[in-house]
Amino acid sequence: MTLLTQEHELARRTAREFAEKYVEPVARKMDRENYYPREVIREAGKLGLLTPTVSPEYGGGGGDLRTAVVVLEELGRVSGGFSLLVEAYGILFADALNNFATKRQKEEVLSKVAAGEKIGAFALSEPCCGSDAAAIQTQAEKRGGEWVINGTKMWITNGLYADYYLVAARTGPREARHRAITLFLLPRSKCIEASPIEVMGVRGTGTAELKLSDCRAGDDDVVGKVNGGWEVLTTTLNIGRTAVAAVAVGVARGAYEEALSWARNRELFGRRLVEFQNTQFELAEMLAAIETARTLTYYSAYLYDTKSPHFVLMTHVAKLQSARIAVDVARRAVQIEGGFGYSKESKAEMFYRDAKILEIGEGTNEVMKYVIYKLIEKGSFH
Ligand SMILES: Cc1cc2nc3c(=O)[nH]c(=O)nc-3n(C[C@H](O)[C@H](O)[C@H](O)COP(=O)(O)OP(=O)(O)OC[C@H]3O[C@@H](n4cnc5c(N)ncnc54)[C@H](O)[C@@H]3O)c2cc1C
């Protein structure tokens, strides 16, 4: 079984060259100054790297999930922030539209988003509810033939700069939970107030709180079906979890490469740090963990691309393990660098902070385990 083909390796090469030419120069600025790399996003759009899975008809890369995975991995190796920004943009927003939007919505919005001319954000989480997404409180009410939407969204990546929002709202009683949620495609307008949120890692990704006050939408702004939002959300988040696992693989690789280079150059006790067996064992542990995460992530994407029912289990396994591995590898990288690793000069320090969100965003480690256990109960493991 070949998990990756020549086409995937070609996409990897393009993404790596792009990451080194365009992302590397802004990675520290994103982190230190919370700088949102608008111009780099536009450049990524020109190469189809922003929306690798979106149909070429709408300006996307036309690739499968493995294509997206190798792109995100290469971006993450240079900047966890840039990779996560692209993941939220290209998978949570654009791939969801690619799979569920109407032709008009795709023609009007998706082409501009794929080109990087307009920014898209996926707005599900709220102050009340992240893990318990079925309890969201943002309300969409039908008044005089149109929808009127009110509520607050929280932690929205790209939210500060987005031109379009894919917003999940309640379209029925709270007790109906996931059966009364609908997704709306809303353009940025005065009814949406976006405020910045300062975060620990993945800085420069435009994380925002959104206040929606009497936003108006028509039936033709619904993505998927009225009260059918849960299907859009679960499909999109299942794909997103493998994509986040790919970000994690990239972040882990970035941290590992930093540590290896440091260990080869640092001298102490009359030897290079890399000559101590403990350092060699640490680097070996890191590499073994990265290859484990990588294999899981590629395998999960392969299962999606080949329409295997085993994908749902594996996307949760890949996300859980890869996120944990990214945090652990980055922690070890900081340790190898000693005091330097704890300083703001160190890239390992940045990767360590970037890695942590991967255990929280798009479902925490605990939510991954909750879903995996539910699948065990259903007899999904064989
Ligand atoms: C930087 C950043 C970017 C983000 N980007 C986006 C975005 O673009 N769009 C979007 O919609 N959201 C986004 N999020 C939100 C993210 O998905 C949520 O933060 C996440 O799902 C967790 O939700 P919560 O913060 O409400 O935590 P909670 O759900 O309140 O969880 C708190 C704790 O309880 C644990 N827990 C939850 N359920 C259980 C259980 N059943 N058993 C035991 N423990 C449990 C959790 O694991 C966690 O440790 C982002 C968050 C951050 C920080």
Tell me about this structure.
Its cofactor is FAD. GO terms for molecular function: acyl-CoA dehydrogenase activity; flavin adenine dinucleotide binding. InterPro entries: Acyl-CoA_Oxase/DH_mid-dom (IPR006091), Acyl-CoA_Oxase/DH_mid-dom_sf (IPR046373), AcylCo_DH-like_C (IPR036250), AcylCo_DH/oxidase_C (IPR009075), AcylCoA_DH/ox_N (IPR013786), AcylCoA_DH/ox_N_sf (IPR037069), AcylCoA_DH/oxidase_NM_dom_sf (IPR009100). Helix 3 runs antiparallel to helix 7, helix 6 (229-265) runs antiparallel to helix 9 and helix 7 packs antiparallel against helix 8 (311-341). The chain folds into 3 domains: 6-119, Acyl-CoA dehydrogenase/oxidase, N-terminal domain (Butyryl-Coa Dehydrogenase, subunit A, domain 1, Orthogonal Bundle); 121-227, Butyryl-CoA Dehydrogenase, subunit A, domain 2; 230-377, Butyryl-CoA Dehydrogenase, subunit A, domain 3. The strands form 3 sheets. The protein has a 4-stranded mixed β-sheet, with helices on one face. Strands 2-3-7-6 form a 4-stranded antiparallel β-sheet, with no helix packed on it. Strands 9-10 form a two-stranded antiparallel sheet. It is of the alpha+beta class. Helix content is 54%, strand content 14%. The radius of gyration is 21 Å and the shape is globular. Residues 88, 122-125, 130-131, 155-157, 199, 202, 207, 357, 360-364, 366-367, 370 line the site of flavin-adenine dinucleotide. Residues 88, 122-125, 130-131, 155-157, 199, 202, 207, 357, 360-364, 366-367, 370 line the site of flavin-adenine dinucleotide (FAD).
